Amino acid sequence: MIEQLAHKIDQFVNGQIQRSELISGLSADELSEVEEQLQIIEDIRVAEELKEVRSQVKELGIGEKASDKVFKLTSLYKYIGVAAAVIFLLVTYNIFKDQGHPLLEEYANIKEGLPTMMSDAQHYDFDNAMTFFKEGNYKTALEKFETVEASKDIGQDALDYFMGLCHFHLRGYSEAIDLLDSLEPSSAYKSKSLWYVLMSYVAQEDRTLVDEQLKLILSDPGHPYIDRARSFQSSWADYKKLKFGEE
Amino acid sequence: MKDEALFDGMKKKDPKVYQWIYNQMFSSIETMVKKNSGTSDDARDLFQEGLVSLWLNIRLDKYKLKSGVKLSTYFYQLCKNKWISELRRKKIDTTEWNEGLEQEEISLDVHDEERITKIERALEQLGGSCQELLQRFYYRKESLKVISIQLGYTEKTAKNNKYRCMQKLKTILSSQSNAL
């Protein structure tokens, strides 16, 4: 089906055009395709409603649907089932752990480069932690960063910054804010940390703090993420309007 | 409760109406099932499925108030027919059973129910993000702008994805039909 026709169907199902307008000028084949698509759309709606009805029926005084009762398995199957469930949960957790607030996907995923002062073997632990960090294995990276001792080359601010980022990606937003906010204004990581503090406030949906933090970033035209911040400002305004009815 | 109230309540998915039907009808369904090779658990399963089918038949205008058949009679027959199908599926002989378990008393079109089951399966196969996109647009009637913000897309991407998801859904539905 051509895209324009699909668009016209959407206009019809949303009540923007009349049926006569939808079908005018269509060939018999196109008309049949339109009818088919309208049926599918109606069926999608019914299927969604049906989900609601099923869950309501399950909540009735009828009790749990007998065929839904689990653990009617033999003991061997029971153990296999539990093991499979644990594996499934671990895999699912790893797949979905980074998904969260809708605005974060677009604005919080920034590739971090290596700190500029990296060089010799004494930095092995830090390198190692950064490898896990860059792979997105934030839990292990955090554990590794916690064992690294600050030195004249790898300052505490670098460690706090990357540990803060690990917490952020692990959805430990309060811990992330604590670490990132603690950076001194003179730190090379301060500007970037402001961004992740902002993203943490977004995840926590703290509107006042998001507004304040965004204002702070936008007040610095030289901020490394200034373009991103400007784009975010517009998305955030739309989001607030839709979610909270804020003008 | 009168048929009109039951009908409206079912249409509005009112849990009080489900409960009322349960209180009035479950024992007769249970008796019918137990007399015909089933257990109380089977009866509970059947009752739930019957209630879901009743809602669906009302939603799809397959059962109308003016049809001259009382809602309770229709529901009972619906459960009975489902039970007969279940027994036949299990290859249990249905000829010698109590209550004369014939399926013809009320015409119950299962074609629509099958079609909805197919779309439910196809939506499952479609994957989470496509499913959510179609559900938000067609069921919740959210605009592409709202969806794009909620899902972290641009509006253009949301539009393209919706088109692709619908095409994919059609392909799945068509492959289901070919597999039959």
Kindly describe this structure.
- The complex is a heterodimer of chains A (about 250) and B (about 180).
- Chain A has about 250 residues and is an all-alpha fold.
- Chain A has three domains: about 5-60, no CATH class; about 70-95; about 105-245, Alpha Horseshoe (Serine Threonine Protein Phosphatase 5, Tetratricopeptide repeat).
- Chain A has helices at about 5-15, 20-25, 30-60, 75-95, 100-105, 125-135, 140-145, 155-170, 175-180, 190-205, 205-220, 225-245.
- The longest helix of chain A is centred in the N-terminal third of the chain and has 31 residues, at about 30-60.
- Chain A is elongated.
- Chain A starts with a helix and ends with a helix.
- Residues about 70-75 and about 115-120 of chain A have low confidence and may be disordered.
- By secondary structure, chain B is an all-alpha fold.
- Chain B is about 70% helix and about 0% strand.
- Chain B has eight helices and no strands.
- The longest helix of chain B has 25 residues, at about 155-180.
- The radius of gyration of chain B is 20 Å and the shape is globular.
- At the A-B interface, helix 1, helix 3, helix 5 and helix 12 of A face helix 2, helix 3, helix 5, helix 6 and helix 7 of B.
Q: Determine the strand fraction of chain A and express it as a percent band.
A: under 5%
CATH architecture grouping of the largest domain in chain A: Alpha Horseshoe
* Global shape of chain A: elongated
**Biggest sheet character of chain A:** none
Instruction: Write the H/E string of chain B, N to C.
Output: HHHHHHHH
Mean pLDDT of chain B: 84
- Supply the CATH superfamily name of the largest domain in chain A: Tetratricopeptide repeat domain
Structural class from helices and strands of chain B?
Answer: mainly alpha
What's the CATH first level of the largest domain in chain B?
Mainly Alpha
Count of folded domains of chain A: 3
| Structural domain tally of chain B | 2
Helix content of chain A: 55-70%
What's the overall geometry of chain B? Answer: globular
User: Ranges of chain B with pLDDT <50 over ≥5 residues?
Assistant: none
